[in-house]
Specification:
With 425 residues, the protein is an alpha+beta fold. It folds into four domains: 1-54; 57-140, Sandwich (Immunoglobulin-like), CATH 2.60.40; 146-225, Immunoglobulins (Immunoglobulin-like, Sandwich); 237-317, Immunoglobulin-like (Sandwich). It is 16% helix and 33% strand. 20% of the residues are buried.
Length: 425
Amino acid sequence: MKKASSMLLVTLIFLILMCITGVAWADILNNDTNTNIKLNSFECTIECPERCPCTNTLEIYVYDMNTRLPISQATVEISGPGSYFVKDYTGSKGTSSISKGINLAGEYFVSASKEGYKSRSKPVTIKECSIYEVSIGLIPECPEPAISVYVYDNRTDDPIGGAEVTLNGPDDYSSTKTTAGDGKITFDNLTKGTYAVSVSKSGYENGADSVNAIECSQSDLSIGLDPSSEPCPDPSISVYVYDNRTDDPIVGAEVTLNGPDDYSSTRTTANDGKTIFDNLSEGTYAVSVSKSGYRNGSLSESVSATYCKPYEMLIGLTKRNSHGGGDNGNGGDNGDNGNNPPTTQTPPPDVNETPPTTQTPPDVNETPPTKISGPPPIVSEPPTDDNQPPGKGDLPFTGANPTTYLLTGLVVISIGVITRRLAIK
């Protein structure tokens, strides 16, 4: 009996020691694993070796150097050690963030470009795992300076077309151009500096002024001309008669002009459909036109002695119909004030003309074209390391709870006691 009790006591002590040893060994393994992880993390933040799971980050900001505003959709390119190269685009706030693949220490070059701007680049040296901020300001590209000249009548404020504008400036620059119907002319591709402008036009006094050509912009200059002090010739009226349907001039039309002081004169149009009444006085004149086979036409015009050009009156006549309809006396283009060209009437459509082809409407279910986005960044992934220390729970027995060992020992003891008693019996 004593021998059996002794064996039971030894078995109990052995199981208790085994439980304590297992718990202690698990704690040692877990603590050793945590120590290695912390050590590796410390080394990663200091030296950033390739075997560490950490990378650098480049925060890039691109802005306009004139306005200081961010530039969106700017192209950002980064090159670095080895064959490293990344291409990205800035967002609405002018920023781009690159982090993947920047795991090697060394010198990197960041360049930014955008249409309408001059490209720029900056170097950046990577030494440790951190966030590096790079700001790049772009200078807008601009056209060469330009000067726009507007010439107008000082009396009426109307633009003067056909005026000769001469521009003289730096480096013996000299150029003469003629204003268009809107009174404007532009001199471009100039150099920065001060330019002298002179203007001349028949019937006007000459005008002159100066203007500065500014870099990256157009300078505008307005010059008003005074009518010449020389008296204008006596007013005159030029009448042009044409066919309303064909716009062809009508030859041999009788044009009668009635005006102030019982003035009345009748003339016949020439081959060009025109006739001129000159040496007139100021006042309002009425014009009536007749031609065999056409309805009569009429128009009126006020004449000023200070207007140095002939007044032009355009009168269109309409042919009588084939049934010989009567003349109502208003068959002319009465709405014409003499200052507008004749309106071309569209001829009747050809009955044999092929009707226009009906265009097939687009299919509403047609698949829209695929939108091509910008090229995605090309990054170099950091190399993986298969020699990483195991994490908690990866070693055998390290995930067990100490209570588990204690319960296991009690079960074994119970089995031993029961087995021993059965053997004695």
